[in-house]
From TrEMBL:
It comes from Acanthochromis polyacanthus (spiny chromis). Keywords: Coiled coil, Nucleus. This is MYC binding protein. It comes from the Eukaryota. The keyword Chloroplast does not apply. GO terms for cellular component: nucleus.
């Protein structure tokens, strides 16, 4: 009987560990998503693997991609401003047809 209690205690500790680390919530949410699928996938294990990967931590290069995106957005904004400025300078030399230029 003592062996049973020790085993039960270890199980309870492991269950608390899984609950504390968020594993139970993650697995539950993936299983609920599978349950709620209107058309069940042919391979449930692939579905679970896909959704566990998506709900897990971000890829290692996610932060690098975020930084690159911010840098590219800044460059884009600078280029758009430069383009606007160059168009304005061009208008000084070549007025648009809408400004009454005779053809």
């Amino acid at each position: 009987m003592a062996h049973y209690r020790a085993s039960e205690s270890k199980r309870e500790q492991f269950r608390r560990y899984l609950e504390k680390s968020g594993v139970l919530d993650t697995i539950t949410s993936v299983l609920v998503a599978l349950y709620e699928e209107t058309e069940k996938p042919n391979n449930a294990l692939d579905f679970i693997k896909l959704h566990l990967g998506a709900s897990g931590s971000e890829p290692a290069d996610a932060e690098a991609l975020r930084l690159e995106l911010a840098d590219l957005q800044q460059k884009f904004n600078l280029l758009m401003e430069e383009n606007k400025e160059l168009k304005n300078r061009l208008m000084q030399y070549e007025p648009s047809p809408d400004n009454g230029a005779v053809e």
